[in-house]
Design a protein that fits this description.
- The protein is mostly helical and about 200 residues long.
- It folds into two domains: about 55 residues, Arc Repressor Mutant, subunit A; about 130 residues, Tetracycline Repressor, domain 2.
- Helix content is about 80%, strand content about 0%.
- The protein is built from ten helices and no strands.
- Helix 4 packs parallel to helix 7.
- The radius of gyration is 20 Å and the shape is elongated.
């Protein structure tokens, strides 16, 4: 009976945490990080402010937790598994670009909120740096996989390939094409795939 109660409490705590994160995400996307108060998050999540502190922490902890949430929603682990298994350089690049697209489709709201607040809010800047580190780590991993397959162009190092992949597949690049120039997601995906193939892969791969 005690174990049953403990399991039920754990499930309730996890559900409360998810409700809080979803509420914060909606408000960060619609109002911005700075304008969103803890009391507003509590009201949106239909809980108390102290419950938020107990379950997740202050706003800084919430935005950091959302970095992990968006990775889960974008299916990062599944794509990493497929990237580790493929031996086709073109498929590697297609998987990477597809992940970038999924990220923008499913998590673009959080990304935009973080991007707008990071320059002036130290807490968000830390979350932004964390997200960028994760992204660059993935880009370097793909670059190393391409090198292991002997697919990189002569003169293109793993480090340089990782930098190119990291910059071109970062959400800011997608946002600029979509918001500033009116590109569709399909157009972005096609262009990015073709560009990375042209810049990185040796002829005949």
């Amino acid at each position: 009976m005690t174990a049953h109660r403990s399991n039920r409490r754990q499930k309730q705590a996890a559900a409360t945490r998810q409700d809080i994160l979803r509420a914060a995400r909606r408000l960060f996307a619609s109002q911005g990080y700075v304008a969103t108060s803890m009391s507003a998050i509590a009201e949106e999540a239909e809980t108390g402010v102290q419950t938020i502190y107990d379950s997740v922490g202050p706003k800084r902890a919430i935005i950091l937790a959302l970095v992990d949430v968006i990775e889960e929603e974008a299916g990062v682990e599944e794509v990493r598994r497929r990237i580790a298994q493929t031996r086709d350089p073109h498929e590697l690049i297609a998987l990477l670009v597809g992940l970038s697209r999924q990220f923008m489709e499913r998590c673009g709201d959080v990304f935009a909120a973080m991007a707008s607040a990071a320059p002036t809010e130290p807490d968000v800047a830390e979350a932004w740096r964390q997200a960028n580190r994760h992204h660059l780590g993935g880009a370097r991993y793909v670059a190393q996989q391409l090198a292991n397959l002997g697919a990189l162009k002569p003169g293109v190092s793993v480090a340089r390939a990782g930098e190119v992949i990291g910059v071109l597949s970062w959400g800011i690049t997608w946002q600029q094409f979509i918001q500033e120039h009116g590109w569709s997601l399909d157009e972005c995906e096609t262009w990015l795939t073709e560009t990375l193939v042209t810049l990185l892969l040796r002829d005949g791969t």
